[in-house]
Specification:
By secondary structure, this protein is of the alpha+beta class. The protein folds into 3 domains: 47 residues, no CATH class; 62 residues; 47 residues, no CATH class. The protein is built from 9 helices and 3 strands; from the N terminus they run αααααααααβββ. It has a 3-stranded antiparallel beta sheet, covered by helices on one side. α2 crosses α3 and α5 crosses α8. The longest helix is centred in the N-terminal third of the chain and has 22 residues. The radius of gyration is 21 Å and the shape is elongated. The relative contact order is 0.09. Pfam families: SCO6045_C. This is SCO6045-like C-terminal domain-containing protein. InterPro entries: SCO6045-like_C. It comes from Gimesia benthica.
Length: 181
């Protein structure tokens, strides 16, 4: 049976390339540095690092796909840097452990993009995801990054819920924003 120490370390290894590189370069030093129990040390020492890398990439790919589905305009707006930005974000966090893990992952990725001031971040999509997850009943936002027919507009987002609690979105765009390439 795997100890909590073993499970925790495997989870860390699966989401952190730097830790996998340390394990690959010198397993004994890695095990000592991490202060693992004897049981955990035996499990970690027996790992095939190439297989661990493949598993980590498969998990990251699943996370990336799910997030891209939830924030498609932001993902598109990030362009060719989307996967790289998600990799950077994923290295700093773990996959949320809730029934809404994909939505929470997308929300935290938006927060990461916002904090890092990454070009391509869309506050309008972040607002909608935040409203949807936090079960608010009514919100109004002024935004300058509404994407309508692949054009950018300034406008107002109005979010509410119907009597059964389903989220509703209304957007009033006011003028087109000229985006400088």
């Amino acid at each position: 049976m795997n100890s909590p120490d073993t499970v925790r370390m495997l989870a860390l290894l699966l989401h952190n390339q730097s830790l996998r590189d340390q394990l690959r370069s010198c397993p004994a030093t890695f095990i000592t540095t991490q202060g693992l129990s004897e049981e955990a040390a035996q499990v970690i020492a027996s790992l095939d690092c190439d297989q661990l890398d493949r598993q980590a990439e498969a998990l990251l790919s699943k996370r990336r796909f799910q997030v891209a589905q939830l924030i498609p305009q932001t993902w598109h707006s990030l362009g060719s840097s989307a996967s790289e930005q998600f990799q950077n974000y994923a290295e700093q966090t773990t996959w949320p452990e809730t029934h809404q893990k994909h939505e929470r992952d997308a929300l935290r990725f938006c927060q990461y993009l916002q904090q890092q001031r990454i070009p391509g971040y869309l506050k309008s999509e972040h607002n909608w995801l935040n409203f949807h997850l936090h079960k608010h009943w009514f919100r109004i936002h002024w935004v300058t990054d509404l994407i309508i027919d692949q054009q950018r507009f300034s406008g107002i987002q109005v979010f509410s819920r119907n009597p059964s609690g389903a989220p509703l979105k209304r957007v009033f765009f006011l003028w087109r924003v000229n985006v400088v390439p």
